[in-house]
Amino acid sequence: MADTTQIDGEVTTFAYTLLNDATAADARTTLGLVIGTDVQAEDAALTSIAGLATAANTLIYTTALDTYAVIASANSSLLVTSGTGVPSLSTAIPDGVTATTQSASDNSTKVATTAYVDSAVGGGGGGGLVYLGSATASASATVDLDNLLSATYDNYVVMVNDLLPATNSVNLHMRIGTGATPTYQTTTYIDGLSNTTHFEPFVRADRSAYALSNTSGRETALTVNVSNANGGGDKSFYAIGNPNIATLPGCISYGSWQTATVITSIRFYMSSGNIATGEFRVYGIANS
To answer: According to the model, what pLDDT value does residue 121 have?
Structure first.
C-alpha cells in the first residue's frame, strides 16, 4: 500500500483509491471511464456529425469517409441523386431516370415507362378507352371540347352526364371542329332528321327530335361515338342515351359529317338557350 502519511487527512478515501492506481487504465476503471465500455472512443464520424448545424426536418448524409453534411427536407419531395451521386430533394422524378418497358403480362413492381402505361391503360391490345379531357357546363352557350381529338386515335367516345338545359323543351345539337384553332362546321351533316347544319343525338323512332326538360331531377345521360376522325372519308356518329322522358327508357341516333377533313374538336349546344349543367368527358379508343 502506498505511503499516505504525508497527505493523511488532506484527501478523501476515493482519492486514495485513484492515487493508488498504477496505470492510466486502472485510473479509468476506478473513474468508470473505460473506453469502449463506459464511454465512446473518439470517432471522426461522430466528430463530424457533432459539428453540424441541424434543425427540424433535416437529413444527414455523407460527403466523404467519416464526413457528413445536412440537407433540409420538404413536403412531398423525393430524395434523388445527381450524376455524381450528390443528393438533393425534388418534387418530380428527374430527367434521365428511366424504366424498363415490361411485357403486358409482367406483374413486377418496377417503375413503368409512359409507353407501357399508355398501352396497359389503353386496353393492352386495342379497344380500351383512354381519358383525354373534359368540360363542365354552367349556364354555357356552348360546351367546346377543343383539340382533344388527334392523330393518336381514329375513334372516340364522348360521355355526357347530368345534362340539363336552361330552357324547357329544347333539343341538344352537336357539331365538329377542324383545325388547331377550331372552326366548327355548319354544313354537310346528315342524321336521322335529315339535318345538314348539325348532328341531333336524340331522335325518336318516328324521326322526330326529343325535346329535353329543364326540370331539376330530369337530367340527361348520353354517349356519342365518333368514328374515322382521322380517316379520308365521312366522319360517323352513333349516339345512345336517355332523354329522361317518362314514356321512353332511351334512344339511339346516328349520322355523319360528309367531309374527308380531319376533325380535332367537338361542340355541344342547345337549339335555344344555354346548357345549365352537364359534364362532358372525351375518351380515345386505343388503336392497338
So the answer is: 58
Q: How far apart are CA 200 and CA 272, in angstroms?
A: 14
Question: What pTM was computed for the model?
Answer: 0.60
Q: What angle do CA 66, 72, 77 make, to 5 degrees?
A: 115
| DSSP, res 5 | G
pLDDT reported for residue 20: 79
- Is residue 230 in a domain? yes
Q: Same structural domain for residues 53 and 170?
A: no
Domain match, 140 and 256 both? yes
Give the three cell numbers for residue 62: 455523407
DSSP 248: B
CB 226 within 8 A of CB 150: no
Residues of the chain with pLDDT under 50: 124
Q: What pLDDT, on the 0 to 100 scale, is given for residue 135?
A: 97
For residue 270, give the H/E element and its range: strand 265-270
| Pair 134, 256 in one domain | yes
For residues 146 and 265, the answer to whether their CB atoms sit within 8 Å is yes
**In a domain? residue 170:** yes
